[in-house]
Write a structure and sequence with these properties.
Blueprint: E1 4-7, H1 15-26, E2 31-33, E3 40-44, H2 48-58, E4 67-69, H3 85-94, E5 99-104, H4 111-114, E6 119-123, H5 128-137, E7 141-142, H6 157-164, E8 170-173, E9 184-187, E10 194-197, H7 203-210, E11 214-215, E12 243-249, H8 252-268, E13 273-277, E14 290-292, H9 299-315, E15 320-324, H10 332-342, E16 347-350
Parallel strand pairs: 1-8, 2-8, 4-6, 5-9, 10-11, 12-15, 12-16, 13-14, 13-15
Antiparallel strand pairs: 2-3, 3-7, 4-7, 5-6, 9-10
The protein binds threonylcarbamoyladenylate (TXA) and magnesium ion.
Length: 351
């Protein structure tokens, strides 16, 4: 399949290209497009065959359900059985934006989209290009992250081309995405909302609104043997080719010393090693191969760069990525969730 790759600025939308992309989606084809979180791989959410094509293009297990994207509040009604009070509060506060809500699905939504579950995940993105595309398509658009299954999610079109060129009909290059980590997935079927996947909207944001919020205990990597409620969380994920190891410590100086000690040991064994550093620790790693992921005082900068840096380490052909851990406040909870999954839970504490 020849993939059309086309550039478009969110401030200068090209209606002809969007018409064409909308038509591809309506006819069962696949279009990758930017959202405010990561690039999505879109297909018609009401078409079982389109769902099949999404799973095939990504190499994704078909029991891992897709998120359905809508552009207008009224588009929700046909897709769900009912809309709870808590769901209404979430929608009013965070849509459009990086928040996905789990609803009981209506009969209109094929089982192929929800991996056989009787619930469906829905979000209204805030990216102008994503919204315009969904409106043009005039159908709900199922869109997982536009990466090969298991790899870090794409935050620039180049990543999508690397993973999906020749496997999808069109890739719209709208530049960098914003948050850089995926949407927060929330289940409001119980009394208190529960975060099934941390993301762009933080636990603190939800707590402020509801007074309290639960986080699926199964997300605490390795500490729980119950299955996560969000099927996607059970897979090793976001992984670059290299093996990721996370380091934590109470002091940045000791953290850097511990990381360098491990680095030297791996190099002695003949491995290529890279360090994922922060602006605050960069100076400790002079003479070591390191990339700065962002600034600890502005965690949003780390979220925006995380997946990009993991892919850059692959280009450097390192065997091991030694990454600095963060506290789990605010957006850091999402960053550490992705990092721990990339590391398969490997975490070393430096005393
Ligand atoms: O930011 C995002 O959410 C991006 C952009 C493209 O919108 N999309 C995304 O989709 O991250 P994906 O498919 O890579 O991740 C969807 C997550 C998975 O962890 C999946 O298990 C969960 O949402 N999910 C989908 N439907 C669900 C359901 N009915 N119940 C529980 N979890 C669900
Ligand atoms: Mg994904």
């Amino acid at each position: 399949m020849k993939t059309i790759v086309t550039k478009m600025e969110e401030t200068n939308l090209d209606n002809d290209v969007l018409d064409k992309a909308g038509e591809i989606l309506r006819n069962g084809g696949l279009v990758a497009f930017p959202t405010e979180t990561v690039y999505g791989l879109g297909g018609n959410a009401l078409d079982e065959e389109a769902a099949g094509r999404i799973y095939e293009a990504k190499g994704r297990p078909s029991d891992n359900p897709l998120i359905v994207h809508i552009a207008k509040f009224k588009d929700l009604v046909a897709l769900v059985e009912d809309i709870s009070e808590n769901a209404k509060i979430l929608m009013a506060n965070f849509w459009p934006g990086p928040l996905t809500i789990i609803f009981k699905k209506s009969k209109l939504v094929p089982d192929a989209i929800t991996g056989g579950l009787d619930t469906v995940a829905i979000r209204m993105p805030s990216h102008p290009l994503a919204l315009a595309l969904i409106e043009k398509a005039n159908i709900p658009v199922a869109a997982p992250s536009a990466n090969t299954s298991g790899k870090p999610s794409p935050t620039i079109a180049k990543h999508v081309v690397e993973d999906l060129d020749g496997r999808v009909d069109m890739i719209i290059d709208g530049g960098d995405t914003g948050f850089g980590v995926e949407s927060t997935v929330v289940d409001v079927s119980g009394e208190e909302p529960m975060i099934l996947r941390p993301g762009g909207i933080t636990a603190e944001d939800l707590k402020e609104l509801f007074g309290s919020v639960n986080i699926d205990p199964a997300l605490d990597y390795g500490k729980s043997d119950v299955a996560p409620k969000s099927p996607g969380q059970k897979y090793k994920h976001y992984s670059p080719k290299a093996e990721v190891v996370i380091f934590e410590s109470d002091s940045l100086e000791r953290l850097a010393a511990g990381i360098k000690e491990k680095y030297d040991a791996y190099v002695d064994d003949g491995y290529n090693v890279g360090i994922m550093a922060t602006e605050e620790t960069e100076e400790y790693y002079e003479g070591y191969c390191s990339l700065v992921v962002g600034n600890r005082a502005e965690p949003i900068s780390i979220a925006a760069n995380l997946f990009k840096k993991l892919r850059e380490f692959d280009e450097l052909n390192v065997d091991f990525i030694l990454a600095e851990g963060l506290d789990e406040l605010g957006i850091n909870l999402a960053i550490m969730n992705r990092l721990k999954k990339a590391a398969g839970g490997k975490l070393i504490f430096i005393d």
